[in-house]
Amino acid sequence: MRKTYVADIRERDQVDAVFLVKDKIMAMAKNGKPYLTLRLMDKSGEVEAKVWDNVDTLAATFGRDDFVAIRSKATVYLGKMQLIIAELRRIPDDEVELADFLPETDRNIQEMETELAALCATLADDNLRQLLSAFFDDPVLMASYRLAPAAKGMHHVYLGGLLEHSLAVARLVDSIVPLYTGINRDLLIAGALLHDVGKVREMAYQRSFDYTDEGKLLGHITIGVEMIQEKLVTLPGFPPELAMLLKHMLLSHHGQYEYGSPKRPKTLEATILNYLDDLDSKINGIRTHIRKEPDNPSRWTAYHRLYDRYFFKENCLDGEDSPLPVEVVPEEQVPAPREQVKEGTERKNFHNNPFEQLKEKNLDLF
């Protein structure tokens, strides 16, 4: 039977399908009866659901991160789609296909693995090539590296995102190296492929994307440096200075202390890696935001809170050369221009700036 995805749901639909429970909250209605509010998801999106009847019995049969089969009716409430659940039962993990419930890369993962192997083979430095082999010939590590997302919320937030992002940064390296002299291309490629390797242990992605305990306590930068050291002890004779330069690239690839970098970039290669990592992350994040509203006829995206702006979706690739029509954004949706905001108001307040809030919480932007 064809699965009904969240993105396919329309008002008044009868929805009989399997979803992943992202969130589960029990509350009390004004009449004193309990009810459940669920956040259900699959790879196409998320939808809120309500359980009004037989709540106590049903609530005991499943939990957050469980798969559930539901029979429900779709309705629009306060402008948002909502499912009213009549029946619900937990589904064993072995009866579902994980790829139906978590977003995944558009690229073919096997093709990306082939690209990774070919890229590693181009390294002229035997030591770095052996180090990469120690990582990518490890089947246990590769099982995670090929599937892990690159982040929880900002960019490449899908299965295969880590591998896709790492290869993209490596391709950017090969675009930059011919333009400048004196760059250690092998070191940069190794840094590009390993800069986020700690995310295989930082990220949890067997259900909804989240951080592991190790990820919350140590972070992928620290974990990645530890992983490199673990591999280096198996490679006697690896040059200590080369190891130091590679570790520095991992420790500094977020660029600034406030972005979670223990060190700022202090070599040419580390500086390049920082900017290329940031470039690919932001391009992916903006493209993902633009693609979130395929049915929106507006030429502008919704407001992106973290980037603090709207994005214009057109780029003239369709060949149109006529003057662009002016689309008026409702005044109440337009953030106050920075130059009009007085000193001391919320936009200049550290704790009200979304990016600064993320930095303060040490969440992963890149």
Describe the structure.
The protein is α+β, with helices and mostly antiparallel strands and 366 residues long. It has 2 domains: 6-99, Nucleic acid-binding proteins (OB fold (Dihydrolipoamide Acetyltransferase, E2P), Beta Barrel); 110-287, Hypothetical protein af1432 (Orthogonal Bundle), CATH 1.10.3210. 36% of the residues lie in helices and 16% in strands. It is built from 12 helices and 7 strands. The chain has helices spanning 55-59, 109-121, 126-136, 139-145, 161-176, 185-194, 199-202, 213-217, 219-232, 240-252, 268-291, 354-361, and strands at 14-28, 34-42, 45-51, 67-77, 80-91, 203-204, 210-211. A 5-stranded mixed beta barrel has the order 1-2-3-5-4. Strands 6-7 form a two-stranded antiparallel sheet. A hairpin with a 2-residue loop joins strand 4 (67-77) and strand 5. The chain is elongated and about 70 Å long. Residues 319-352 and 355-363 have low confidence and may be disordered.
Task: Explain briefly what this protein structure is.
This protein is an alpha+beta fold and 366 residues long. It has twelve helices and seven strands.
